[in-house]
## 1
Amino acid sequence: MSADIRPTGGKLGVLLPGMGAVATTFIAGIEAVKAGLGAPIGSLTQMGTIRLGQRTEDRSPRIKDFVPLADLDDIVCGGWDIFDEDVYTAARRSGVLDKDLLEDLRPQLEKIRPWPAVFDQRYVKKLHGTHVKGGESWMEKARLLIDDIERFKKANGCNRTVMVWCGSTEIFMETKPVHETIDAFELGLMENDPDISPSMVYAYAAIKTGTPFANGAPNLTCDTPALVELAKREGIPIGGKDFKTGQTLMKTILAPGFKARLLGVNGWFSTNILGNRDGEVLDDPESFKTKEQSKLSVLDHILQPHLYPDLYGEIHHKVRINYYPPRGDNKEGWDNIDIFGWLGYPMQIKVDFLCRDSILAAPIVLDLALFLDLAHRSGMSGIQEWLSFYFKSPQTAPGLYAEHDLFIQLMKLKNTLRHLKGETLITHLGTEYYD
Ligand SMILES: NC(=O)c1ccc[n+]([C@@H]2O[C@H](COP(=O)([O-])OP(=O)(O)OC[C@H]3O[C@@H](n4cnc5c(N)ncnc54)[C@H](O)[C@@H]3O)[C@@H](O)[C@H]2O)c1
């Protein structure tokens, strides 16, 4: 039985709180693809295929031909930032894409200017925002965001919107009583509770306007009982946290391999140098703590030391991020992995990933926007665990550990699409070929 999926018809507004390196690389990338100046490499929705039925059937359509996704031509972008720079200027400053490409796309990019942001320096210590909203309380600010969204939808003829947080990493926060229920949270918004951060105000405004929300940073944001409950009540899909790009992507590719072959690991030292604004923000210990928790969690969950104490019971796992301006967005991530094999003999693996952070993140923004819109049109709401493929710290139901293994995450994502379309789920059992 296939799910009742509402057709796409009309424009999809993609709203981006935080129009820095990732968001501008995403927007410019969409424009480049539309203009035939580049290919959407790294995007499952644009380039991926999905096998259907038995291996002998030879049915592997493109994902975008299998499920109804918004077309790139129907995407309109808007967003907020604490600096009043249009997307062309912000993209130039971010230094990710070539100047020539940005020059070709200049007219489309210059047209997009961020709206004033909801911001408070208590939550991102390194930035001094100048382009920020007034409003006495968080609730008033949420209303101003809701006005922005409604105005944008009307001006661009959008019948649907999705929001992907691409703003800076906020300080480390934990769930407090104000996050426990919708009532407590709404009271907190009215009373300016300090345990509510700007990203939570955006998530609230998104849900209240029927806009699915994904969190690309490790902030707590919508990972609270109150916002999960609100999302379910309003029928809105949400997900997070923290785009899975460079070093953590590598970790979630390598670690499942070690575990599959029962190779022991007793040390994993990861260090990064990066020089973009994200690196500057993460130079603050409180923002770094949020990121560190997100980066550290993956190994434990993949390697399951409680099940394999002899192999993974004593891992020294360290993550360092160093702000080093000469590198700009072209991060370098080094990993030294100490492993051991037969009879405990030690070996080492060194990974030196000279990556480009925003080049890896942009296709994730696109896929999350399109899949969240699909989920919404399919009547799905609350946490979308099938999208954990894209996150370093996937949000899950309470009490459930997150699945970090990239390959299990991909299988889950594709099986969800098969399920939506009433296709047989693929288990890889395969006995039928030998009967
Ligand atoms: N690039 C990656 O590979 C990657 C991977 C995982 C997570 N992330 C996260 O994605 C986010 C964006 O990364 P980036 O490289 O584009 O950083 P960036 O610093 O270039 O962009 C972030 C933007 O958010 C703006 N901002 C901060 N607070 C805001 C607020 N309250 N409202 C609106 N705008 C606000 C900043 O002014 C800045 O322009 C960061 O939190 C980063 O940690 C990035």
## 2
Amino acid sequence: MTQTQKTVKVLARVEFKSDSRKICYQVLSSHGADVYTTCLFDGKATGCSCPATNGKCYHRTQVEQIERIRSAPSAKSATFTELKRVYDVRQNPSTRATDLVLEAKRRQAAPLAGASRAFSLMR
Ligand SMILES: [Zn+2]
């Protein structure tokens, strides 16, 4: 079942004011032509408007996952930090160190880095 791995594309998230446990996601169908509504109650998928009848379409399982990640405070702030690192590097000096570490790792991993050229000269 995991061979046909599809990634759900979320278009919108609707939180019901009357009951915050009830959340619906609008998702794009895999062929991109239809929009389905996948609803959750208390983090569990309760229904999906796609044609799948077995009750276990990938919309439901992935929307459950998305909602779980979203509602976990630590994951949320980690995502925010990650986004900030990518898009807001210059305005946040504390990410400079992280960038330097990543840059060092990238250089180590790069097969054509200066180090490997120097090594080939010694051969
Ligand atoms: Zn579905």
